[in-house]
Amino acid sequence: MRLRNRREKAKDPDSFEQLPAYDEERLGKLFDALDKDENGRISANDVLEVFSHVPEEHVKETLGKADTAKTGNIDFAEFVRYIVDHEKRLALTFSKLDQNKDGILDAKEIMSSFEKLGLKIDETEARRLLKRMDASLSLTISFEEFRDYFLWYPSTNVKDLFGYWRHSAFSNIAEDSLVPDDLTENELTSGMWWRHLVAGGIAGCVSRTATAPLDRIKTFFQVYGKLGGMKHCVQMLLKEGGYLGLWRGNGMNVLKIAPESAIKFMSYEQMKKILKGDSEAELNIQERILAGAGAGAISQSAIYPMEVIKTRLTLRRTGEFDGIFHAARKIYRNEGLRAFYRGYAPNLIGILPYAGIDLAVYETLKRWYISKYSIQGETETTAKPPAYIVLGCGVVSSVCGQLSSYPLALVKTKLQASSSVESIKLGENSTFGIMKSIVAKEGLPGLYRGMGPNFMKAVPAVSISYVVYEHVRDSLGGHMT
Prior knowledge:
Elements lengths: L1 H8 L11 H14 L6 E2 L1 H7 L5 H11 L7 E2 H22 L6 E2 L1 H10 L6 H11 L7 E2 H7 L8 H9 L18 H6 L1 H19 L1 H13 L5 H12 L8 H6 L1 H20 L8 H31 L8 H12 L8 H30 L13 H31 L2 H7 L4 H12 L8 H26 L5
Antiparallel strand pairs: 1-2, 3-4
């Protein structure tokens, strides 16, 4: 009945005459799935509601080509006309790639096709690419799988298709992830990158502000010890500075997000280019960890004085500093320029294990979930874990990363908090000196003091970041791949 209604409403009934019955039924079912309000037309939002993993800009460009009447949405005739033409072009592309003409693509054909484009990949990467599209788990690709995978991609150019195919989307929403998201060339040239940075920056501001009291307690534990427990520490802070005092240092913590994110993003793109060289191969996880750690080291080096000021403001007593600039002048006047880089070495050393473990755990957990719980026909790329799974992966990976580098983070904070004169008097003027002193007094657990409030802020920090990021990104029209 709905098919007959579509024929009657379609502007060009002749477009059905040459369409085989199987394809007419197939496209009819797809159109019905998209046309949920049964008004005989589909829009970009209708498509994105069903194919949520497809980038918004691809859907809009595809529908823009199909929308010959320029009404902002398409009817069944326009849908069929465009899809049939698009599938014919994809069939020609598939035929060129299918070198032995057996109707399927295997790893060797993929490698050979990439090589003809001047892009070298090994068999491991070729198999990984196959798995993204291989709904039947046969390690080969049929035309149907190829067609369905690229259905909403607006180009049929071989190089464009392969570029889209190779792009690996990764979005770790942990509050302080050191490995930025990978962006496609289209996202970099279309301005999608700044929307991503703005959304991430605003999410970071809200998240850090919401969890600032826990961060201040953690900092006090790191520098001064457990102070009789968390309850006693909170009472002490409230007595000394009132409720607003719990947010001391948050202004600088928020202020440093913009330069840190921008420098990290630009550095990461440059590190990727250096690691890839002349190759067009996709970065593997080890290379991404290295690129992320390098970008983290560069961004931390650039904004490290802000880190020191943030720590001093977090620990300050009432009346000690009048604000950020007063704190900077006072530190420089009393301790010199070197004070702004105290703790820099342990901070730098801790970046690689943090970035490596954070990313590796996140990727492992996400892939495990997809392999175990994705519905039949979904691949690693098309499967979209629920929000609570993404949040859980982000929390666990962030905690694991922090556990690996926490002793170094504690040493960094203690060095930032102390003037060089105080440190020498205490015999704690180096990373080893501080660790030795803490272990002698408190044992190895002392190197993890402050981990309690740090764990407590992990779930709300990641959750708030995720929710705010999604809302801001959608408001800016920045749907990431």
